[in-house]
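User: I'm putting together notes for a lab meeting next week and I want to include a structural view of one of the chains we've been expressing. I don't have a solved structure, so I'd like a prediction I can at least talk through. The sequence is below, exactly as it appears in our construct file.
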Amino acid sequence: KVTRVDPEENLRMIGESVAFLRASGKRVIYDAEHFFDAYADDAGYALACLRAAAEAGAENVTLCDTNGATLPTRVAQATAHVVTELGETVGVGIHAHDDAGCGVANSLAAVEQGARLVQGTMNGYGERCGNANLVTVLPDLQLKLGFDCVPGELLARLTETSHLVDELCNVTPDANQPYVGANAFAHKGGMHVAGVSRDARTFEHLDPAQVGADRRLLVSELSGRGTIRARAEDTGADLDEEGAGRVVERVKDLEHRGYHLEAADGTLDLLIRRETGHYEPLFRLEAWRVIVEKRQDGKVETEATIKIWVDGERYVRTAEGNGPVNALDSALRDAIGETYPHLRDIELVNFKVRILDERKGTGAVTRVLLDASDGHETWGSIGVSENIIEASWEALVDSLEAGMLPARIERVPGTGAPRG
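Assistant: Thanks for the context. Below is the predicted structure for the 420-residue chain, given as structure tokens.
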């Protein structure tokens, strides 16, 4: 109905197209668009199309679920039939979409029935609801089904690669993405944390290091000392039982004031470090000022000035930006960038603002959450204030200071010895 081509003419066109490409020295993978719908309508003709491509020299016939409607049971049945009929003469592949939420499941179902080529995209990017997510398919095939897809040392870069693709696409990483999301190996609650500490298999389906991920122990006002100490150990801080108790009380106080430390692991790490007594801030603040000017021509200019002390030396810096936070960030980096060169690698990748009590209108308390990354790791920071710029400044400083913690900076190749 779409191409308005006679069935026999269609078979001839498939064969001639493949033969032409083969005669030109090309390797050919024949993507059978709408295969599963065609198979359900006329299995014999659907197979004839594949056979025409195979006989003309295609090395693989890939079964496409073009509209993403097919469920895994139907994919498995059809793939098994194709492999039985043609598997001796041509390779079989799968091309799945995620319109029904089955892109990954359909890919695995096809492989289990004999398909040996999987088409998909990094992080599932694609038209409509996306394609099969190779970031999930790859570890599923290798770690769950036993296929040797890539060397283990490359699989251990999966999280890093996934986040790099997100960054290139200017998309915030999906925290709930299997294997590589920030929540994939995150644990909250005393029993869960205790269970993971004793036997990680209780709440983790594999070692996070296999895919280049890190275990995250989330902390909230319901957390106990064990969770705090486990988090401290994970970040290289030496925190005793008494110190952990003080951190727990501090967390409870902050959460009652509107902080949400579960989403701000960088701020939490700083809180723990400060409690150990072995923490030195990057700088001492004297003052900062932000000027926002709306001009007659409609342009808005923002300028920030900061006055800080670093190692006994006073710095005054002014910078312009596309908003107060950007201007403050630029001025601060200008002031301390030479002293702490690793700051050049830290980027702010997400900025979220939430009003905690909307009934107070413009006088409400504001919560600011920042996500920062050095290209190898991502962490969150938080600020809370009735003044949105003050909340932003608090979160900004925490994001930079957290990025300079010894445990974090040591993970970054090529950095010098960490401070304090």
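A couple of points you could mention at the meeting. The chain is about 40% helix and 20% strand. Confidence is low (pLDDT under 50) at residues 411-420.

User: Perfect, that's what I needed.
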